[in-house]
Please model this.
Amino acid sequence: MSGIDPAVEIQRGYYTETASRYDTMHRHEGVDDAEGRKLILSILRPLEIRSFLDVGSATGRGLKEFAAELPRALVCGVEPVRALVQQGVAAGNAETVSLLQASGEGLPFADASFDVVSEFSILHHVPEPAKVVGEMLRVARKAVVIVDCNRFAQGSWPVRIFKLALYKMGLWGAFNFARTGGKRYQISEGDGLFYSYSVYDSYDAVAQWADRILLLASGPTHSRSWFHPLLTAEGLILIAIRDREPKK
Model:
């Protein structure tokens, strides 16, 4: 027995099998999104970033662009799937970026050891995103960046409102458990195993850590509503900034 959650084994197996094709399959997504990266960096630059950690970096290809834009900063990525790390090293991505094999649920770094800690579209692939976010907040000093999906903006308007109502009543977990036959996850050909997740699930934990939070749509939206971006943006960028010095 490996002791690893079977769902985690399924997801890591998927990425192991697709490692050689990963960069082609996910081009322009997540950390590779040039427009999103430009927006994030415009907000981070005034913070005088000297160190940047990305959690779930896959092959590390997208991090090379961050390293180029932050030439004075140490840019590091952690990825739990060995095959993806090996693919990144073979592709030369580790020449300008430190790429390590490690899990987001247990980051091998001291408290407040990086100015910025980010994740790009990995939280909807983990069974307990709160653990990963907790680790990100622990090792971050100045800012945390979460770029991920938002279940509340998916589906028709009645469906969106229904999901939000269930969540507010504390019933979403039970409903999701029932609709997935107890698995809580689904599997797609292009994205492997994924869970129902919204950046708003992590908002309260981040708000306790941060002094300022910016919440933006990560792509174009076609619905106009007072509920923007909660019910109109399928992808969100959350940038949390901490002005206080970390406790020692």
